Amino acid sequence: MKRRIKKLDPRASWPRPVSDEERAHILGYLEERFGFSPTLFEPYLFLATAKNYWLFTRTEHFEALQSLRVQTAGLLFLRKVSGYLKPTSAALQRFGRFATRNIVILDRLTLDRLRLEKKIPFSAELEPGYVILKCEEDFWGCALYISGKLISYLP
Amino acid sequence: MEKASSLAEDYFSRYQDLIPNYESFLNALSEPLPLYFRLNTLKTQDPDRVVRGLARQGFEVTPVEAVPWFFRVEPRDISLGNTDEYYLGLIYPMTLSSSLPVYALDPRPGEIILDLCAAPGSKTTQIAQLTEDQAIVVANDKRLDRITALVANLRRLGVASVVTTVYRGEQFPLGTTFDKVLVDAPCSGEGRYRKGYEGELLFHKEGHTNLPAIQKGLIVRAYDLLRPGGILVYSTCTINPEENEAVVDYLLRKRQAEVLSWEAPLPSHPGLTEWEGKPFHPELVKAKRFYAHEIGAVGFFVVKLRRQV
């Protein structure tokens, strides 16, 4: 709750555009883990706050916007969690259809059980780590596959 | 209900000569507002998936031919907010006529656009959709609690092109100039009134709030934020000429604005050039009035203006 109040602080300042090196690191992770093509994100910048990366449309007006006291800029895309990058469910709902790897396809009953119980036993031929949840034709968001368990990060 | 009917009839009688086919207007007030949603094409361009999904949950969905990506839903008294399609951000429930100001704005990729009174975000997200997330939208609202709802909708729909700010609209800082500004102004909401459904009109509820004064402050600041040649769209969901033509007339007397014609996808009537003995600028005929009983949605007023170079 405290974090939400802080995020909407009226004195909030602009997030920092990431360096080329940091961008390459983010794109490398997205490609390696999920098979996202780096060109998919060419129309976008990545902006950084203390623990998050935001996806923001690339624009020639970026400098002009700096004088505004902003609450949010763009789509919350990745969180830094214990040295790992965790994609948000919002990001995966939007871009999941372009992923080619580490997609977990669940039937409706299993999805409902995961949403309800937050953690279920699960085994699959996948490297442990964050995965994209898909059910029928829809991309639902993010989960963590680890030690024979699936842990939901759905909102 | 009889009391509500008589109150509404008394209230709207001042518009008897203004509203076309007044009897059918009064009859329409007894029906609940139709329910619509917009398909979020940033996530899917397949209406069949959404229509099938909603049908499984008991909704009957019909496309609106005149307005692309809009669908009408029955039953209209059940919220779409609990459906998977809502959770996944595939749909944005909004009234059909709420799309009109964005049609007048005609947003294009690469532009920088200000939505001055943006929350909860129906028009901001519609702009993002029409520009394929490639125009920058500054979505402003003076209330922090309403910004929270706006941010939740942006996240739900997966929009990356929007910056949110919390300023009083009439004091929005002048440092940044915009290609286009949308003022969907706070208003008395007469266009959304239905007997026994919405209860009192906002005008009654808000008591002595001087809405035209607020609206005049907003439209002048919006104009001053435009680059030369930039476009301003002013809209309300009310019938009241004092909140519509009189506000635009005020701007036309204060600034060198030009009223523009625009193509609307729904039937409309020209703006007024006179109300209760007070003349308005003759160019206000180019404004558009949309009446609830003619469009099967909330009544609206929309005008498009250009800042003179």
Automatic annotation (TrEMBL), chain A:
<protein>
    <submittedName>
        <fullName>Uncharacterized protein</fullName>
    </submittedName>
</protein>
From TrEMBL, chain B:
<keyword id="KW-0489">Methyltransferase</keyword>
<feature type="binding site">
    <location>
        <position position="184"/>
    </location>
    <ligand>
        <name>S-adenosyl-L-methionine</name>
    </ligand>
</feature>
<keyword id="KW-0808">Transferase</keyword>
<dbReference type="InterPro" id="IPR018314">
    <property type="entry name" value="RsmB/NOL1/NOP2-like_CS"/>
</dbReference>
<comment type="similarity">
    <text>Belongs to the class I-like SAM-binding methyltransferase superfamily. RsmB/NOP family.</text>
</comment>
<dbReference type="InterPro" id="IPR001678">
    <property type="entry name" value="MeTrfase_RsmB-F_NOP2_dom"/>
</dbReference>
<keyword id="KW-0694">RNA-binding</keyword>
<dbReference type="GO" id="GO:0001510">
    <property type="term" value="P:RNA methylation"/>
</dbReference>
<dbReference type="GO" id="GO:0008757">
    <property type="term" value="F:S-adenosylmethionine-dependent methyltransferase activity"/>
</dbReference>
<feature type="binding site">
    <location>
        <position position="141"/>
    </location>
    <ligand>
        <name>S-adenosyl-L-methionine</name>
    </ligand>
</feature>
<feature type="active site" description="Nucleophile">
    <location>
        <position position="237"/>
    </location>
</feature>
<feature type="binding site">
    <location>
        <begin position="117"/>
        <end position="123"/>
    </location>
    <ligand>
        <name>S-adenosyl-L-methionine</name>
    </ligand>
</feature>
<keyword id="KW-0949">S-adenosyl-L-methionine</keyword>
<feature type="domain" description="SAM-dependent MTase RsmB/NOP-type">
    <location>
        <begin position="25"/>
        <end position="308"/>
    </location>
</feature>
<dbReference type="InterPro" id="IPR029063">
    <property type="entry name" value="SAM-dependent_MTases_sf"/>
</dbReference>
<dbReference type="GO" id="GO:0008173">
    <property type="term" value="F:RNA methyltransferase activity"/>
</dbReference>
<dbReference type="GO" id="GO:0003723">
    <property type="term" value="F:RNA binding"/>
</dbReference>
<protein>
    <submittedName>
        <fullName>tRNA m5C48-49 methylase</fullName>
    </submittedName>
</protein>
<dbReference type="GO" id="GO:0006396">
    <property type="term" value="P:RNA processing"/>
</dbReference>
<dbReference type="InterPro" id="IPR049560">
    <property type="entry name" value="MeTrfase_RsmB-F_NOP2_cat"/>
</dbReference>
<dbReference type="Pfam" id="PF01189">
    <property type="entry name" value="Methyltr_RsmB-F"/>
</dbReference>
<dbReference type="InterPro" id="IPR023267">
    <property type="entry name" value="RCMT"/>
</dbReference>
